[in-house]
Amino acid sequence: MAQKELGRVTIRSAHGTYISAQQDGSVRCDRREAKEWEEFTLIQVGHHHDKVALRSAHNTYLCADNGDTMVCNRQQVGAWETFKMHTSGYHVHFKTGHGSYMSGRQDGSLNHEARRVQDWEKFTLTYIANHGHQQQTRGPIGQPMGGQQSFFQTHHGKYIRIHPDMRVDGESGNMQEWERITIQQMPNGRVALRSHHGTYVSGRDNGSVTAVTQCQEWETWQQMFSPDGRHGFMSFHGKYLSVDQGGGVTASKTQFMDWEKFRITGGSQPAYQPAAQQPYIPQQQGGQQSFFQTAHGKFIRVHPDNRVDGESGNMQEWERITIQQMPNGRVTLRSHHGSYLSGRDNGSVTAVTQCAEWETWQQIFSPDNSGRHGFMSFHGKYLSVDQSGSVTANKTQFMDWEKFRITGSQPAAQQPYAPAAQQPYMPQQPYAPAPQQQPYMPQQPYAPAPQQQPYAPQQQPYGVNQMTNQMGQMGMTPMPGGSWMQSARNQRMQGNVLMCELNNGRGQFMQASVIVYPGQRFKNVYGQFQPE
Predict the structure, then answer these.
(1) Domain segments of the chain: what residues?
(2) Consecutive H or E run containing 223
(3) Of 266, 399, 425, 507, which residue has the fewest beta carbons closer than 10 angstroms?
(4) 515 - beta bridge partners?
(5) Does domain 145-265 fall into CATH 2.80.10.50?
(6) 51-55, 185-189, 221-225, 234-238 — most confident range
(7) CATH number of this structure's domain 3-128
(8) Residue 409 in contact with residue 91, Cβ under 8 Å?
(9) pLDDT per residue over 363-398, tens digit each?
(10) Please, what is the average pLDDT of the chain?
(11) Given this model, what pLDDT does residue 248 score?
């Protein structure tokens, strides 16, 4: 079977530890620092981008062995050494040939006993170029997947245009081939911007923007979502894609202002009219309990009286914050007291008991390879803690005071893992795979649920059924089924993100969006998507 190397990676678990291949063929997930044994070569197996193998620094392959154990002692790639890698936001999970999922346990072990994806089955994949030079040396970052062809309308009403000679400008008044850009999802959660000519938009280290033929780290962008329905793109160097009044395109801005926001459209689109915010209840899907360490070495603390400060030197209950994923891709920050961190329109931060739009944040991963995180409020400002411990959400630049080390994390709703005793791996002689390896036959054969048929009501409002069929034929993510269609308008897909206006039950239509995966169905709950 054909194989293609996609680059070298490190794989970090939900506990902040790295998967490590040992010399004796065993594998652990307890390393706090990524060195040579924690690096793997990611290999595409066959012609499907999501089927991969992982080769260690010892030139052996990671294997989902019999009995739910993981080893790294195979000399060639077979069914047990092939994984189906799914990307979900900034995380990936690996489905084995047995139908189970690779899981990084709290005790530092790695197995594949999980039959569904929760926090411990999610990993962060970091692409590296050469050992010890993750940031300075550029290298391959994997294969862009699929994508949505769009036009990027600037704040000045023009469109970004990419020329065959690699020039990029924002002067065009047309929506034709040279203005067409495909947003392609990368395995690490970032995106690539591919032109009609097959070139990629590249944000250079000097702040210039050009098009190049190869997609490497400088050609990946972190897609941002502005509360007004527009999008932004942060370069590998932490600067924003920007178009000035003269049509000049750069990636040198540190503030996310109007010139750094783009309306992604495939044609005409009505102007966005934000409605008054409506309360909604987030899905309680576990979450990651963590401590937020500031740049000053202290921790964010939420008081029972709803005060929030960054003065604490402890890691106890009041400092514990649960990061909860929202259906629209944003997160909420829930305190130990059950209240939510809220970024107010005046730049202050407090805790409130009800979760509405102002209590959602866009989680940002720092491009300086420090492992720190940032959080942008609904109003487009960064959560920040100053030297005195004051917490605000009024900063427009993503600097040190706006970066937090998420530490001491523990899944919120998962029972501690109690593994059975296991004998150390003691090979008698070098491993030679037997030609008669039998397929995995568990006592209870894994039987996935039958694939759900697309929702097909007798009458589709706004031509949704015809649009979905056309999108499926074009290889694009189809619109999901569900009762949401009966109260929606102006629905459209951007990559795997469904965007539309939903009726909030009071006659008002609100801008709403949600990340879509195959087979999902949604309903409208007061102007917000909820799984059905």
Answers:
(1) 3-128, 145-265, 288-411, 461-531
(2) strand 220-225
(3) 507
(4) 497
(5) yes
(6) 51-55
(7) 2.80.10.50
(8) no
(9) 887 766 567 888 988 888 899 999 999 999 998 878
(10) 77
(11) 95
Assigned token pair, 36: 């040579």
CATH code of the region 288-411: 2.80.10.50
pLDDT value at residue 441 = 41
What single-letter amino acid sits at 133? H
Which residues, at least 6 apart from 428, have a Cβ–Cβ distance to it below 8 Å?
none
Residue 413 has pLDDT above 80, yes or no: no
Q: Give me the residues paired with residue 54 across strands.
A: 42
Distance of alpha carbon 157 from alpha carbon 258, whole angstroms:
12
Tokens of 521: 């169905």
Q: Both tokens of residue 152? A: 């990027």
Strands annotated E in 274-390: 288-293, 299-302, 308-312, 320-325, 331-335, 340-343, 349-352, 360-365, 373-376, 382-385
- Per-residue model confidence as pLDDT tens digits over 27-53: 999 998 888 899 999 888 887 767 899
Give the torsion sign (CA, 65, 70, 76, 82).
Answer: positive
Q: How many CA atoms lie within 13 A of 434 on its CB side?
A: 4
Can you tell me the distance from the alpha carbon of 519 to that of 532, in angstroms, rounded to the nearest whole number? 11
145-265 and 461-531 in the same fold: no
Q: Which CATH superfamily does the domain covering 461-531 fall into?
A: Cyanovirin-N (2.30.60.10)
Displacement of CA 255 from its chain's centroid (Å): 22
Q: Could you give the CA distance from residue 299 to residue 406 in angstroms, rounded to a whole number?
A: 10
Structure tokens at 95: 């489905």
As a whole number of angstroms, the distance between CA 301 and CA 315 comes to 9
Cβ-proximal residues to 405 (8 Å cutoff; 6+ apart), any chain: 292, 293, 370, 371, 372, 373
